[in-house]
Amino acid sequence: MAEGTVLRELYLIRHGESTGNAGIEAQTPLDGFDPVLSPKGEDQADRLGKLVKDYGFDAVYSSGLRRAVGTAAGIIRNGPVNVLNILPDLCETGVEVEYQGQTLEELRSICPGAVVAEGYEDSERLIINDETPGENETRYFERAAKLLDYLASRFENGEKIALVSHAAFLTYVIFYIIGYRDKEPNYDFRLTNTGITKIVFYAPGTYEFGDTVFDYINDTRHLP
After folding, report:
1. What is the pLDDT of residue 2?
2. Distance, CA of 119 to CA of 210 (rounded, Å)
3. Cα–Cα distances in Å, from 109 out to 15, 45, 62, 102, 199?
4. Could you tell me the pTM of the whole model?
5. What CATH code is assigned to 6-219?
6. Integer Cα distance of 17 and 193 in angstroms
7. How many CB atoms lie within 10 A of CB 92?
8. CB under 8 Å to 20, separation ≥6 — which residues?
9. How far from the centroid of its chain's Cα atoms is residue 38's Cα?
10. Which H or E run contains 66?
11. 123 φ, ψ (degrees, to nearest 5)
12. Which residues is 115 bridged to in the sheet?
């Protein structure tokens, strides 16, 4: 059988270490709701950007949370793509309802190339709040489905897309792709800060090993 017709390659990337991950005490309410990258996280983002600078990304997307935007900025700084698409559906689960999120102008102070993703220009917020974290997990799978449909409707000619998001939500995306779509199985995936998971989507029936193939999960070769 032929090598297969690639529709799109997705690179799921967890953000770099945040001040919250590092246990650094929040100095302001904003830091508590929406932590930035720690110094280690900044280094991880730079190492990530240098690793993927020759991957040939056609588009880079990020959640609207600062730690993700800061990580995506490492890709933008080092790669040929100079636009970062802020996509609210990449937001982490469990974002408190009191937090309104950052404006596009504020996010541009982290990554000057930030724009609101196509189709979301009228969004009032660039994040998704979570009134009942961990409950009714179906909504997280529904958001994963919406994300994948969004990408499928825009990329079908072998494009390479980087998606910078968060451990919990990316886990739901992975579960959804492999067929767990209403509840979590009793296992998990280790998604390290700036770890990369590559998933290739083929045109149906063109690749002998299936229409969706995980090339690797949580690649961290760029980290010391």
Report:
1. 62
2. 31
3. 17, 16, 15, 11, 31
4. 0.96
5. 3.40.50.1240
6. 6
7. 21
8. 26, 32, 35, 67
9. 18
10. helix 66-78
11. -65, 135
12. 85
Distance (Å, rounded) from C-alpha 177 to C-alpha 159?
Answer: 18
Q: Are 84 and 62 in contact (CB under 8 A)?
A: yes
Determine contact, residues 115/83, Cβ cutoff 8 Å.
yes
Both tokens assigned to 117? 């993703």
SS3 142: helix
Taking CA atoms, 174 is separated from 35, 39, 151, 197, in Å, by: 25, 29, 15, 9
The CA distances from residue 5 to 69, 91, 116, 152, 202, in Å, are 32, 30, 30, 14, 5
* 8-state DSSP, 96: -
Token look-up 């767990």 returns: 180
Quote the tokens at residue 141. 């799978």
Other C-beta atoms within 10 Å of 14: how many? 27
Provide block-wise average pLDDT over 10 residues at a time, the chain (224 residues). Answer: 88 98 93 97 98 97 98 95 97 96 97 97 94 89 97 98 98 94 83 98 95 97 96
Q: What one-character DSSP code corresponds to residue 37?
A: B
- Of 158, 159, 162, the residue nearest 197 (C-alpha): 162
Question: Which residue, chain included where needed, has tokens 């945040």?
Answer: 18
pLDDT, position 185: 78
Tokens describing residue 98: 């009191």
Please report, for the chain, the start and end positions of each structural domain, with discontinuous segments joined by +. 6-219
